[in-house]
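Troubleshooting log. The previous structure file for this entry was overwritten by mistake, so regenerating from the original sequence record. Sequence copied from the archived sheet and checked twice against the printout by T.R.
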Amino acid sequence: MNDFTKNSVIPTLKSFIKKSKRFILFALNPASAINSQTNYKWYLYLIFPSFGWMLFFMQTGLDRAMEYYVSAGSIIGISLLGFAAGYVTVGLVSYFVLQIMKASKIEIEYSNVAVCIAMSHTYMIFSLVLGFVYRIFGTGSSAAFGVAGLLCTLLPIYSGIRTLGGKNAYFAPLVTTVIGFFMLCMWGAIMLIEL
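Regenerated output below.
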């Protein structure tokens, strides 16, 4: 192994593996970000749920195309709108949860809340990818896989909020229900847009 390979490729590969491992651990257990003392670059993590929202609205566009003629531009447009809406919605939901935490005398950084909620979308993305597989065989719909994915997303969000809520048994279910309602309302609002 020459000096170039030893000094540049191996450290880069180790760094990539370390970052990938952290990402996978967060994807499987997003609530771990809540207990972490790390200050995350939350604005980069919000790209992850944005991708999930984009997949959902892409499937919605494809569903519309099966019912009646929809241009490729419309499908791309609604997908991009979903990406932007996912970024903004998850950012706002994270801020909303942070304010509830502060009102409840729970100290936490915005970045930890945003990363927990963003990485909770792993389950939604998995559900939507499964929806694309079903689409290949001509069955399933974006609504079924999207709503199932959103409901799966709420479980790790609930887990993180419950960790912070401590002994209050009603805190996590109420906050998680409001989050789910807000996200479904945002989805519904975008579904009404005809591009």
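The chain has a mean pLDDT of 81. Archived copy saved in two places this time.
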